[in-house]
Amino acid sequence: MNTPPKPSLKERQFALRESAILDAVDALLSGKGFDLMTMDEVAQAVGISKASLYKHFDSKELLAAATMSRLLDRTLDKVAECTDNQRAIDKLKMLVAWSVLEHLEGRMPTLPSTRSSIHEFMMRHRPYVEKLEQLTEILGGWIIAAQEAGHINPRLPGEVVLYTIYARPCDPVTDFLKMGGAFTDEEIIDAIVTTCFNGLQPG
Questions:
Q1: SS3 letters across the chain
Q2: Cβ-based burial of 150 (10 A; exposed 0-12, middle 13-18, buried ≥19)
Q3: pLDDT, tens digit, for every residue of 88-141?
Q4: How far apart are CA 161 and CA 149, in angstroms?
Q5: Angle value at C-alpha 26, between 191 and 38, nearest 5 degrees
Q6: Which domains are present in the chain?
Q7: How far apart are the first and last CA of the chain?
Q8: Which SUPFAM superfamilies match (predicted)?
Q9: The whole model's pTM is what?
Q10: 164 vs 79, 125, 130, CA distance in Å?
């Protein structure tokens, strides 16, 4: 069996710079969204020239697509940590808690809405769409299992539950609670998970 050649120093530096670029975009998309983000801001955040940025991504759309695809990779990795003996409802709660933590720490880019100029581009970007479909299929199975177990209202369409879960890390309540300074990150996460799955009724 042939061992693949190790990447050169130049290739490793390129990969590290690309990772730094995507980290910066995570923060910018989390803070202001795609439409307000500029390539100049990305280059400045990373500390590279705009020309160097374009060697990695030749458009803002491709940059956002790479960032969102990486987010889905991270999410699928988190999903893969779940075990078969975990209840479906606990898996869903874990994923919501993790996604809210990612948002609080500036690693959760804002999902493209149907009104965003990036939405149509993302829906044509096959790597993103394929990963989104994979994640949706997994979560759909968890939702059905949780409904059958009586942990989620079975009268709710699966799409309603799915989009509710997808929207939680983008909930402005998280930012308001964080800015208020009265709650720790753990308390905010617990509050978002509780209201997501239990509503406002007493436990």
A1: CCCCCCCCHHHHHHHHHHHHHHHHHHHHHHHHCCCCCCHHHHHHHHCCCHHHHHHHCCCHHHHHHHHHHHHHHHHHHHHHCCCCCCCHHHHHHHHHHHHHHHHHCCCCCCCCCCCCCCHHHHHHCHHHHHHHHHHHHHHHHHHHHHHHCCCCCCCCCHHHHHHHHHHHHHCHHHHHHHHHCCCCHHHHHHHHHHHHHHCCCCC
A2: exposed
A3: 999 999 999 999 999 998 888 765 565 567 888 888 889 999 999 999 999 999
A4: 15
A5: 130
A6: 60-198 (1.10.357.10)
A7: 58
A8: Homeodomain-like, Tetracyclin repressor-like, C-terminal domain
A9: 0.86
A10: 17, 24, 21
- 54's tokens: 């374009």
Q: Which amino acid is at 134?
A: Q
* pLDDT, mean of each 10-residue run, the chain (203 residues): 73 90 90 87 94 92 91 96 96 98 86 68 90 97 98 97 92 93 97 94 74
